[in-house]
Write a structure and sequence with these properties.
Layout: H1 3-27, E1 32-37, H2 43-57, E2 62-67, E3 77-79, E4 93-96, E5 108-112, H3 127-134, E6 139-142, H4 145-157, E7 165-168, H5 172-181, E8 192-195, H6 212-221, E9 225-228, H7 238-246, E10 253-255, H8 262-266, E11 270-273, H9 278-286, E12 290-293, H10 296-306, H11 311-314, E13 320-323, H12 329-338, H13 342-349, H14 356-369
Parallel strand pairs: 1-2, 1-4, 2-3, 4-5, 5-6, 6-7, 8-9, 8-11, 9-10, 11-12, 12-13
């Protein structure tokens, strides 16, 4: 999509949206809301679970939806480039699940955090900037008190007094996936492993990226089936495309760049990751263990970067184990096969609001707030 097309579609959307919000708010005196998907590479992943809550569960609210991406048409959504948002008027609540630099005029801003745990938000070099950006938001919706910790730590660290109000809404994505899970036939195989790295450009020193090729080769040679699931922002990255092409002829290898990872997760028996937030989502959804691929050097860096403040790192062995040596990965996998860890995972999961509770809670919050 070229610049002219983006400008044209944004302008048309802007005109329609402003007319709609003017009628609802000024003429009919109704509260108005606008949900915006800002990250164009992951629109297709987040739209499904956002629709699940907002289109179906909150139909009584005057809410419209927008997105910033390369597609020109998504059903019930308006394409609008982020820079045009400042020309939107009469929007009471602007809602997003990824941070934006531009917002509609005089709107209350609601940010729905998209992680289940207190996973590190961003690379250290942009952490301060991110927390100051967060300080301009009015409300942050969080999956649990555990997820809230990363925000408390950041605001305290940078001594930011102007803080948004945090509301425990439950984890929308997990609730959506658990609902979908009931309708899917599971063909779980004790030979299928899913590898799901974090966004490696944010955490280069902690990423599994440099070990992926030899790790996949080792697993394939030992009879395992491997699904590589890149972070959405890395799906088209040259380093991952290289791996996709390199293993293209391997029948037991799958490069999963689909919009929904549900089937890949459900049909595997273990996940290997580095510091991705998807580790806890996977474990709570499937009740399967996670192997955190690390090293002594990386563990020292984790301690230097994050100390002992984050439950993400403290609770890793409650949902799996930490693999510190590359040569021991096969032993770690065998250990996970025999280790009875399901009860520990369930215990951790109870700390996260999921299922019907989220649907009820999100409705109560919005009905009260909007």
């Amino acid at each position: 999509m070229n610049f002219i097309s983006k400008f044209f579609y944004s302008l048309i959307s802007l005109i329609y949206l402003n007319i709609f919000f003017f009628i609802k708010r000024i003429i009919k005196n109704k509260k108005t809301s606008f949900f915006y998907h800002s990250e164009n590479k992951i629109n297709d992943i987040s739209i499904d679970y956002i629709n699940f809550f907002f289109h179906k569960k909150l139909s009584n609210i005057n809410i419209l939806f927008g997105y910033n991406g390369n597609k020109l048409a998504i059903d019930k959504y308006f394409y609008i480039n982020e820079r045009f948002l400042k020309y939107l008027y009469n929007v009471d609540y602007f809602i997003t699940n990824y941070l934006t630099n531009v917002h509609p005029i005089k709107s209350k801003i609601i940010y729905i955090h998209h992680d289940i745990y207190d996973t590190p938000l961003v690379a250290k070099k942009i952490e301060k900037k991110t927390f100051y950006q967060l300080s301009k938001i009015d409300y942050i919706f969080l999956s649990s008190e555990i997820a809230e910790q990363i925000f408390k730590n950041g605001f305290n660290k940078y001594k930011i007094n102007n803080r948004p109000k945090t509301i425990i809404s439950g984890y929308l994505k997990l609730s959506f996936l658990e609902n979908k899970k009931k309708k899917i036939k599971i063909f779980k195989q004790n030979k299928k492993i899913i590898i799901a790295p974090t966004q490696y450009k944010s955490f280069k020193n902690l990423s599994i990226i440099t070990d992926l090729k030899k790790l996949i080769l080792k697993l394939l040679r030992n009879g395992y089936m491997v699904t590589l699931r890149p972070h959405p922002l890395n799906r088209d990255d040259s380093r991952f495309i290289y791996l996709k092409n390199f293993f293209n002829t391997e029948q037991k290898f799958v490069y999963d760049d689909s919009s929904n990872y549900l089937k890949s997760y459900l049909n595997s028996f273990v996940m290997i990751t580095d510091i991705s937030g998807t580790a806890y989502t996977y474990s709570f959804l499937t009740l399967n263990p996670v192997i955190f691929y690390s090293s002594l050097k990386k563990e020292k860096l984790i301690n230097n970067y994050f100390g002992q403040n984050l439950n993400y790192f403290k609770n890793r062995e409650k949902i799996g184990l930490i693999n510190l040596k590359e040569k021991e990965i096969l032993k770690s996998i065998k250990k996970m096969k025999s280790k009875k860890i399901k009860s520990s995972i369930l215990k951790q999961k109870k700390k996260i609001i999921s299922g019907k509770d989220v649907q009820k809670r999100i409705n109560l919050i919005f009905n009260k707030l909007i």
